[in-house]
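Sanity check

After download, print the first record. It should look like this:
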Amino acid sequence: MREHDMLEKEEIFSKVLRAGRRTYFFDVRATKADDYYITITESKKFTEEDGSFHFKKHKIYLYKEDFTSFAEILDEMTSYVLNHKGEEVISERHQKDFKKEYSAEKTHDYSIPQTSVFTNIEFDDI
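Expected structure tokens:
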């Protein structure tokens, strides 16, 4: 019964983020004193040449006393990256099936201007 109680405490609240070969697990867990903390687990799938696969996992334990500082630094770091490099994921260019999506915005437009109004002229009108 004790093992069941421990498992129940470990599954207090969970969220999963699937991101390609990586999966992130965010879990709220309880200490022995019944206080809460968070674990963040990165699980990455590796496929062998023979088709078999294995997972590598890395885990971070985050306790309540560190929540505020952790969130502030995470926000600062993500803002820094986005402000300096934008949201485009450059590493996707190196994947075998990468296809560049061109945006509708152009720096230079050398095309002939098009009018949005169409006038139908019959030969007899000329």
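If your output differs, re-run the checksum step. Summary of this record's structure: The chain has a mean pLDDT of 77.
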